[in-house]
Amino acid sequence: MKLLGCYFTTFFLAISISAQTLVDGRVVSHQSTGTHNATNDYIRLYQNYISELKGARCAMYPSCSNYGLQVYSEKNFFEACTLISDRLIRCGQDQKLYDKTYEYGYRSLLDTPYYGEQKIKKSLPRVEILKSTKDSTILFINHLINEREYSSALLEIERIHYTNGRFTPTLFLKRLQCLRGLGRNEDVLYEYHINTSTNIKESPDILFEVALNNYLLGNYPVAIEHMQTINDKSPLFLKSSILRALSSANDKDYQNSKNIFAELSGTYPENTSLKKSIHLIEKLSKKKEKSPAVARILSIIPGAGYLYAGHKGSAATSLLINSLLMYATYTSIKSDNYGVAGIMGFFSLSFYIGNINGAVRSAKRYNEKTKNDIISEIERTNNIFNF
After folding, report:
1. Residue 218, phi-psi category: left (phi > 0), alpha (psi -120 to 50), beta (remainder)
2. Are 142 and 127 in contact (CB under 8 A)?
3. DSSP assignment, residue 130?
4. Does 343 have pLDDT greater than 60?
């Protein structure tokens, strides 16, 4: 009943939105329809008053109410209804199948709308403080980077740049590392292509950093292209080859990835991380994926598609909610209460379609999560983001 209460609050009397709303720190743009937005009013009422009385936090990020604000503003009414139905079925269930975030100040399950911005993998750079330098200024910047004070490090870098009037390759590398630490991966690429001299562009350290940011953005072919320019005489050859193998794995070219790791393992037999990486790639290549088409067909029975996709908790919730709504619709028709039957029928339909589409996305989520977990383990094993 808690789920239904939340659903009615975010769902009831929803119409097209005519303003802009701040949702979890970003502005959602709405097309004007000339009508007042009842959805915003009801969701805000829930957030400001009802949510506090419940005394419980939403397990998801964005919260179900903020999720509702976003989907009702960006999708047509019925599609938004099915999206929020799917979210409410899954809310707080099957936690191991979601990435975690601390955006709300406590651990939440990361679950943005499927059509929204893709989540970019974060990396927090660390450097060996005494590596290849005795320059006190660079040492201080390295210290700030290791303390994750990336903004402060950027200010120090800008001060030096202003004083000297130019970037050295080392200073420019530190700038790119700080931008990566702040999650400004696209700014790294802009700086490299627009604000860099030719001699800096050809530096192996800079090439590796740019490739790393392309990798984080999902531009795997571009990352591979950059890495192929680093020859086997460079100190970064090992890491660049590992990054090539990881890029191939992300593109599901597991055989090429395995071949690269096997070749490296032969060249660096003392490196046990490479042998472990081969084992993980083999595990990844043998991992059976869930078929979204099968999940869709099974969802004819509410919850069966979720169960197939590994979402056991969501499957039970879907079966319960859909059964209750269908029963409420049936009993209302049987008692000639057609007004209530119409409302219950609409809710029943939205939850039923939400159950089908949600199961398809859950199958895709399962496949992506299992792949990313193994690849993340390879990244950690080889310490790929630090140098």
Report:
1. left
2. yes
3. T
4. yes
* Residue showing tokens 């007004």: 339
According to the model, what pLDDT value does residue 251 have?
Answer: 92
Q: 10 Å Cβ neighbour count for 122? A: 13
CA distance 167 to 194: 14
The angle subtended at Cα 160 by Cα 155 and Cα 166, nearest 5°, is: 120
pLDDT at position 57, please?
81
Residue 55 pLDDT grade (very low, low, confident, very high; cuts 50, 70, 90): low
- Contact indicator for 231, 238 with CB cutoff of 8 Å: no
Q: What is the mean pLDDT of residues 147-152?
A: 93
Nearest residue to 362 via CA among 288, 304, 313, 292: 292
Is residue 8 exposed (0-12), middle (13-18) or buried (19+ Cβ within 10 Å)? middle
Give the pLDDT confidence of 261-301 residue by residue, as tens digits: 999 999 999 999 999 999 999 999 999 999 999 999 999 99
86 pLDDT above the threshold of 90:
yes
| Domain ranges (residues) in the chain | 2-110, 121-202, 217-286, 292-371
pLDDT digits (tens, 9 = 90+) for 240-266: 999 999 999 999 999 999 999 999 999
Q: How many whole angstroms from its chain centre is CA 124?
A: 16
For every residue of 41-73, which 3-state class applies, written as one string? HHHHHHHHHHHHHHCCCCCEECCHHHHHHHHHH
d(CA 35, CA 273): 60
Cβ neighbours for 24, distance < 8 A, ≥ 6 positions apart = 61, 62, 63, 66, 103
What is d(CA 143, CA 126) in angstroms, rounded to the nearest whole number?
9
State the average pLDDT over residues 147-168.
Answer: 91
pLDDT of residue 20: 40
Tokens representing residue 24 in the block? 């979890």
Helices (H) and strands (E) in the chain, counts: 19, 5
Three-state secondary-structure class, residue 159: helix
Q: Are strands 26-28 and 21-23 parallel, antiparallel or unpaired?
A: antiparallel
Report whether pLDDT(22) > 80. Answer: no
Give the whole-angstrom CA distance, residue 172 versus residue 157.
Answer: 8
